[in-house]
Specification:
- 25% of the residues lie in helices and 23% in strands.
- With 199 residues, the chain is α/β, with parallel strands linked by helices.
- The protein has one domain (11-195): 3-Layer(aba) Sandwich (Rossmann fold), CATH 3.40.50.
- The strands form three sheets. It has a seven-stranded mixed β-sheet with strand order 3-2-1-6-9-10-11.
- Belongs to the 5-formyltetrahydrofolate cyclo-ligase family.
Length: 199
């Protein structure tokens, strides 16, 4: 685990610090890191065997998932992406067949159309979920953007949870953990897959 802001940092401070760090990374460096992360992920047997891949649609300087989505769809793999219901403070995943189906939703992030049918929990069995975040620790805990949408979804999610993280997004210190926070099972990095289970 690489960078850290100390064990006494709260989530707001961590969020602010890691947003600044991410924004400062040159575009070319981000692209190189993301290509290595994608290679680690594609070589991971659990990801390779998944019948369905749930993934966020990358926005701004997030670790790129659009290339992953395009590759999977081209290969005939099943892909679903999130749609946020801000009023209900909830998030569903809907299967897609092209990135062209998506339209700007909350905060301008691309998501399925309002009439897209959400997948049910039983339909998610055998899937993996690629989870976004700003920083992750060795136990799989994360600091996200503060909305809580992923933690609420992951609390009932039946598959494997995989974070995508550049080295600059890894903390050597444990992160603050809330009662409703759900850790990821694995972290895909430039150098390989980190197993967070049992740590």
């Amino acid at each position: 685990m690489a960078s850290s802001y100390g064990t006494d940092a709260d989530k707001s401070s961590l969020r602010s610090n890691y947003l600044s760090v991410r924004k400062a990374i040159p575009t070319r460096s981000r692209a190189s890191s993301d290509a290595s992360i994608r290679s680690s992920l594609r070589a991971f047997p659990i990801f390779d065997a998944a019948e369905l891949v749930l993934t966020y649609v990358s926005f701004g300087p997030e670790v790129d998932t659009r290339s992953i989505i395009a590759e999977l769809l081209e290969e005939g793999r099943r892909v679903a992406v999130p749609r946020v219901n801000k009023a209900a403070h909830a998030m569903d995943f809907c299967e897609i067949f092209s990135l062209d189906e998506l339209e700007p939703g909350v905060m301008g992030i691309l998501e399925p159309a309002p009439n897209a049918e959400p997948l049910t929990t039983p339909e998610l069995v055998g899937s993996v979920c690629l989870v976004p975040g700003l920083v992750f620790d060795g136990s799989g805990h994360r600091v996200g953007y503060g909305g809580g949408y992923y933690d609420r979804f992951l609390a009932f999610y039946p598959g494997d949870k995989i974070a995508l993280a550049r080295t600059t997004m890894l903390s050597s210190n444990p992160l603050p953990v809330g009662v409703h926070d759900v850790p990821v099972d694995f972290i895909a990095t430039e150098s390989g897959i980190w197993n967070c289970r049992g740590r």
